[in-house]
Design goal:
Helices cover 40% and strands 15% of the residues. The protein has 626 residues and is α/β, with parallel strands linked by helices. Keywords: Endoplasmic reticulum, Glycosyltransferase, Membrane, Transferase, Transmembrane, Transmembrane helix.
């Protein structure tokens, strides 16, 4: 073969190298230097051609049928986007939790179904998913049987083992026999990852499906938080620490020359392996004269070993996955540094069909509906109207504490309405509701002083209506504390909302509060995404990755999600109180700072889940079958 041809082939192989990595064991060939067609040929097909003594060129030009051979334009291959091709087959989405409270997986299901895939969601049915999920012709829900309640009556170690075995058996049964046999993909959300990750990976091997992990957080970090284990007491090796150790001990780090032979990969020394494992190396003869440094041994309880095992297995499963998805750039970087797992960042986005702004008419109808419930009696109109609104309200057809419908049937918001401050919490230690409660006590004190003095409308504080949604173990304790306080300017209720009413409640509120703090520090609260979808400004508890979502100052975010301020961050109840007072002063007509935040969200937060999914994840998943 001429040298020019060899050179052209090598250049072409380099240009198409990335295709070989994406094709997962599929060999990539090019018809010719001037051709715009790419041939994908599996290793099995290549072996069959060899047995038949047929060359690749003969198979190409002769039209011999080759299984799983795909042609496509070289330009469309480079871009990675095949928008005109439907995704084939069936996808199983594994939720080892409540399907109704797993919105991100529901959105995945809708996106896959809208692209032509049949979707089977496997999880617990503690609550009903959205009607859009239940009624979709391409989506089927396979319920998992929850563990028996008597598991909680045995010792914690035995209960944990029983629960893992039960879940593994039920999930394996659902994926192997209740789900479609010919699965194209199994996507599992993590956490929880034990035993779901291993079971899903095994099923993918048996059924020849692609294995996809959607990382919402880390299983090991949640276990650590649940068992109150400090991170310092755990041995959690990281891949980037191995690189740093090798680099610091290399000759080049000490200013010496490094030959090409020495720059190749080498086996780590015993000292480096023991350092990575967290065990000190034994003293050598030359060290025996030195006084050994006493090193505190890490705890070796069963729970420490279990968490460390979970940490290592999460990394192994991540490397075994065909596609890894994560929720923040911080998590993508941490996955690569901890386990050498490569992931694509798919931010949570509120779907436009569910979370959106409401008109004044829609808000009034919603308030009227809620007023019929005793849980929302604080929304009912007061017995005596304010003097400046009395004439209008007395002639109105319908009146709530927040809105009214005039004699001509037109809905309006009241000038004297309270400010609705809404927070959605899980009532757990992860979300310290005490911060919000302490801030509201301080707001009550300031509002009491403000009400006794004459001030201009621009400096006046409104009445506050605080609505707390969600359920959790500490709800009863905090409601008991709230009942002991005698608030006069703050009403606090914790009602139950139907799934269809929650987005309407967000869109009817004036200010949102997020108390979420991540166990890993690198995920983002879905509730804030929902609030932004309804164009609701947010006060959020500060943690490591929250800056990717909530922006306090212009152009401070490193992500492209938001360009203008959309909320405020706080670390304690004092900062939260200051933000509430600053934004609420002059409400509703003169709260200029609050109004500016809402305008910024309307202007900048325009990307929906469907558009984001199509641009970021759709091409990656399609490449699994191309």
């Amino acid at each position: 073969m001429p040298a020019e041809a060899n050179s052209a082939i090598k250049e072409l192989e380099r240009a198409l190298g990335y295709l070989a990595r994406l094709s997962k064991g599929t060999t990539v060939y090019e018809k010719g230097v001037a051709s715009s067609e790419v041939l994908f040929l599996t290793s099995a097909d290549k072996a069959r051609l060899s047995c038949e003594n047929m060359s690749l060129s003969a198979a190409w030009t002769g039209g011999t049928p080759i299984k799983r051979v795909f042609y496509k334009s070289y330009e469309s291959t480079k871009s990675g986007r095949l928008r005109n091709k439907r995704m084939p087959g069936t996808a199983a989405l594994v939720v080892v939790g409540d399907v109704g409270h797993s919105p991100r997986m529901n959105y995945h299901a809708l996106s896959l179904a809208d692209h032509g895939m049949n979707v089977e969601i496997i999880g617990y049915l503690d609550s009903n998913p959205h009607q859009k999920i239940r009624d979709h012709p391409r989506i089927r829900i396979i319920p998992l049987k929850p563990p028996p309640k008597w598991f909680a009556d045995v010792k914690p170690t035995i209960a944990l083992g029983l629960k893992v075995l039960w879940t593994a058996f039920c999930l394996m049964w659902a994926l192997m026999w209740q789900a479609t046999w010919r699965l194209s993909m199994v996507m599992i959300q993590n956490p929880p990852g034990i035993p779901g990750l291993v079971v899903s990976w095994l099923v993918c091997k048996l059924k020849g499906a692609s294995f996809v992990i959607d990382w919402h957080n880390y299983t090991w970090s949640i276990l650590r938080n649940n068992y109150r284990i400090p991170t310092e007491s755990l041995v959690l090796p990281r891949k980037d620490e191995v690189v740093d150790t090798a680099a610091s001990k290399s000759p080049s780090a000490e200013g010496e020359s490094l030959s090409p032979e020495a720059s190749t990969s080498r086996r780590s020394t015993r000292d480096e392996r023991q350092m990575l494992a967290g065990t000190p190396r034994p003293l050598r003869q030359r060290d025996r004269t030195e006084k050994p440094v006493e090193k505190k041994k890490p705890p070796t309880s069963w729970i420490h070993k279990y968490i460390q095992w979970a940490y290592n297995w999460e990394g192994k499963m991540g490397r075994a996955a065909n596609v890894n998805i994560c929720v923040t750039k911080e998590m993508r970087s941490d996955l690569a540094g901890a386990w050498n797992v490569r992931a694509v960042t798919l931010y949570d986005k509120a779907p436009s069909w569910n979370f959106k702004e409401l008109s004044i008419e829609e808000k009034h109808v919603f308030f009227e509906k809620l007023c019929h419930s005793n849980e929302f009696r604080v929304l009912r109109a007061e017995e005596t109207y304010p003097a400046d609104e009395r004439e209008v309200l007395e002639s109105a057809q319908e009146v709530t504490r927040f809105s009214y419908r005039d004699a001509e049937g037109v809905a309006h918001l009241r000038e004297s309405r309270p400010l609705i401050l809404l927070s959605s919490t899980s009532w757990t230690e992860d979300e310290d509701f005490g911060i919000l409660l302490d801030a509201l006590k301080a707001v009550e004190s300031v509002a009491s002083i403000s009400s006794t003095t004459e001030s201009a409308p621009a400096n006046r504080l409104p009445h506050f209506c605080v609505i707390i949604t969600g359920k959790g173990p500490q709800k009863a304790m905090y409601l008991d504390r709230i009942a002991r306080f005698k608030f006069r300017h703050v009403d606090i209720i914790a009602p139950w909302l139907e799934a269809e009413d929650y987005p309407k409640m967000l869109a009817s509120a004036d200010l949102g509060v997020s108390l979420h703090t991540s166990t890993s520090g690198i995920d983002l609260p879905m509730k804030v995404v929902d609030m932004f979808g309804c164009k609701l400004p947010v006060l959020a508890k500060s943690f490591r990755a929250i800056h990717e979502l909530v922006v306090e100052r212009e152009n401070e975010s490193s992500s492209t999600q938001q360009a203008s301020p959309n909320g405020r961050l706080f670390d304690n109840s004092g900062e939260l109180k200051a933000h509430i007072l600053d934004l609420a002063t002059g409400f509703p007509s003169h709260a200029q700072k609050l109004h500016e935040l809402r305008v910024n969200i309307r202007r900048d937060y325009v990307v929906s889940w469907a558009d984001h999914w199509d641009a970021v994840l759709g091409p990656v998943l399609k490449d699994q079958w191309e």
